[in-house]
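Researcher: Good morning. I'm working through a list of sequences from a screen, and I'd like to move beyond sequence-only analysis. For each chain I'm collecting a predicted structure so we can compare shapes side by side. This is the next one on the list. No need for commentary yet; just the structure.
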Amino acid sequence: MITLNKTIRLFLDSIGRRDEYEFYLKKFQSEDSACFALLCPDPGSIEAGAEVLAFDLHFLLRLDLVPAILLCGPEAGVMKSALASEPVFAFQKLEKGDPAQFIQQARGSHKVPVLTAREESLESALKKLLPNVARRVHFIRAAGGLRSTAGDLLPYVYTHKENFQLLESLEFDYPHLAKVLLDEMPGVHLSVTSPINLLQEIFTVKGAGTLFRRGSAIAHLETLEKVDRERLIRLLEASFGKTLANEAFLENTAHFYIEQDYRGAVLLEEHPAGLYLSKFAVGREARGEGLAMELWREVCRNHDALFWRSNKANPFNSWYDKQADGHHGIGKWQVFWRGVPAEAISGIISYCCDRAEDFLND
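Model: Good morning. Structure tokens for this chain:
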């Protein structure tokens, strides 16, 4: 990983948390694609934000991250003309020469490569470039991420699960294109954001746009014998960054909700007041993909009364607060509950405080 000088560090600190952007920097710089991402702007984002986009791209070059811009369809010429005034860009038609070689040449000249394809649709061009040239695509839209019909920003659109009629009216059918690409290349990363939010979308777990996902396959298991114990323990320890003190709590788990590749899991134990959520784990590679919300929705769909505890220093507590009916702080713990009868709240708080820790202290 390149050394970050003070100016770059301060700018990245203004975008997001240090542990997050360092994680993504290391991830992107270790990938072996020709470029770390393809950027596909719409005409409105070029017209309104060409200078902002150029600034962001200059910054990415300083981090030794070279994206490529893809301009397709009849408006490609107009967009190219708008970008041509910025000296950071180098241009080549998609059908002429090897795109990977052109990208490498642009990298050597400290420029951002721009591929143009006036006669091709965005779908056709992306199928030629993914996944060899890049495995990430950021659609850049003047209006930013997609919104619901109520006007709320949608952090995730699950292409194989959700009803697209809940979306705002779109000038381009991004969900359909994402579904086609994810059908053929399940591992690619597809998101849509605005020019001004591009860096936040790239370097933070929360992002600043809409991420397209197929949707995860989540198994609901009610016996430990059906669980891959070793993979689950690896997930828990990696997610919490600590070593388990013992594994006895696994024997008390009544419900396991586990993503098929063991990238996330929720463990629930029986209690008279409802179910105690003993573990909520999402692997670092899966953070920012919406897996936590998918797991949570599956749990809440099947269980009405839940309670859990979290260290007061846990940055995830703001999210927990939105999901809970109430919470109470005591000692090092924040206790949350959802659907628990009022008369049982005192008891669950005591239960959470008295319960031993499952991980070794640092």
